[in-house]
From TrEMBL:
Protein name per its UniProtKB record: Acetylornithine aminotransferase
Origin superkingdom: Bacteria
GO terms assigned for molecular function: identical protein binding; pyridoxal phosphate binding; transaminase activity
Protein keywords: Aminotransferase, Pyridoxal phosphate, Transferase
InterPro entries, per the entry: Aminotrans_3, Aminotrans_3_PPA_site, Class-III_PLP-dep_AT, PyrdxlP-dep_Trfase, PyrdxlP-dep_Trfase_major, PyrdxlP-dep_Trfase_small
Cofactor(s) this protein requires: pyridoxal 5'-phosphate
Pfam families from the UniProt entry: Aminotran_3 (PF00202)
Family: Belongs to the class-III pyridoxal-phosphate-dependent aminotransferase family.
């Protein structure tokens, strides 16, 4: 560190300033509790934006990472990678779908892969090329040029990064998809719970109806499960919860428990051939060994009923807050451990988040003035209780 420079000064001098950062310096985490450099503790209701699915310092995960790191961290995908093959098998078995898996490093990359599969499908399966993808307003699908264009929020389509790839259109809701399909439409891409867009779940029945219609029309259904996947909504996939079978599913965030990983699962296993798509780091030893450990931990937690119990406990606490502070929040939204409180104004939302940090609680913002809660799936009841106590302290003066 340069002489006499604070961490904040160092960050501002050398790191590109693409985030409106908070400068609390966390140095350690245990479960869902973080500790800063002064030893102060914070309850973590954000889990790195739904990434730390099994909490901080999870012994099973960290020892799996350490053991793998001692052997091989990385070789290229030109060789077979044992934990990658085993993780793909595990994901397919847990999903209940007959699919193949491609591994990437992030949610945006997973969505890029899904769009490429859809585009090639549209090129090879029809007499006239189909390439158009319909997404929903308030959606979020990533930060690459293509996934920004797939994102149905106008604020992301600034002239700064134009021109954008053609072929994307947006509709307000699921009911509007039907009329938007034309003979060049290859796919509909949607989140079953819009995360960045306000923790907004769609109705099960309307999703099922759409899935059946798309199958009839031979239009692919791509479900972006980057945030909803890996038990976040209570089942392995939100698609399982909604009882649908998508053509393509994308995953990332919680799958590696903090190690960067993304994945595309598709039932169209033969669309891509050698050389069509690739990734240097995707599915390497370290990330897939981490993924296997995460799925072992969470599938056991799911099977023994612990996950369901935690979801219900967290939901009940959130509903209590929503009922008690009707002056601040319109309603409680979300599914599983992907929850939100819809604040009555952007100011209430902002102050709730800022005051929470002061009280030693990390929460997040989302669209539609939503205060977002994405705790680790393995959070303890004690941490939930303490977190809501601090949240109440944060909002009681608003």
């Amino acid at each position: 560190m340069e002489k006499n420079m604070t961490l904040e000064e160092l960050d501002k001098k050398y790191v590109l300033q693409t985030y409106a950062r908070d400068y609390t310096n966390f140095v350690k985490g245990v479960g869902s509790t973080l500790y800063d450099e002064n030893g102060r503790d914070y309850i973590d209701f954000a889990s790195g934006i739904a990434v730390n699915s099994v909490g901080h310092g999870n012994e099973r995960l960290t020892s799996a990472i350490c053991e793998q790191a001692k052997k091989i961290i990385h070789i290229s995908n030109l060789q077979v990678i044992e934990p990658q093959a085993k993780l793909a098998q595990r994901m397919v078995e847990l999903s209940g779908y007959d699919m193949g898996v491609f591994f990437a490093n992030s949610g945006a990359e997973a969505n890029e892969g899904a769009i490429k599969i859809a585009r090639k499908y549209g090129e090879t399966q029809f007499e006239n090329k189909r390439y158009k993808v319909i997404t929903l307003e308030h959606s979020f699908h990533g930060r690459t040029i293509t996934t920004v264009k797939a994102t149905g929020q106008e604020s992301f389509h600034t002239p700064n990064f134009s021109p954008y790839p053609a072929g994307f259109s947006y509709v307000p809701g699921i009911a509007d998809v039907y009329d938007a399909i034309d003979d060049e439409t290859v796919a509909v891409l949607l989140e079953l719970v819009q995360g960045e867009g306000g923790v907004q779940p769609f109705e099960k029945e309307e999703v099922q109806k759409l899935a059946a219609h798309l199958r009839e029309k031979n239009v692919l259904l791509i479900v972006d499960e980057v945030q909803t996947g890996v038990y976040r909504t209570g089942e392995f996939l939100a698609s399982n919860l909604y009882e649908i079978e998508p053509d393509i599913v994308t995953l990332a965030k919680g799958l590696g428990g903090g190690v960067p990983i993304g994945a595309v699962m598709t039932k169209h296993k033969d669309v891509l051939s050698a050389g069509d798509h690739g990734s240097t780091f995707g599915g390497n030893y370290l990330s897939t060994a981490a993924g296997l450990a995460v799925l072992d931990i969470l599938s056991e937690f799911y099977d023994d009923g612990g996950l369901h119990e935690t979801l219900l406990y967290f939901e009940a606490k959130l509903q209590e807050i929503a009922a008690k502070y009707e002056n601040l929040f319109e309603k409680e939204v979300g599914l599983g451990l992907m929850r939100g409180l819809r604040a009555k104004s952007a100011q209430i939302q902002g102050n709730s988040i800022k005051n929470s940090m002061k009280e030693g609680l990390v929460v997040l913002k989302a669209g539609r003035n939503t205060v977002r809660f994405l705790p680790s799936l393995t959070i303890s009841k004690e941490e939930i209780d303490e977190g809501f106590k601090r949240f109440e302290a944060a909002i009681s003066s608003l």
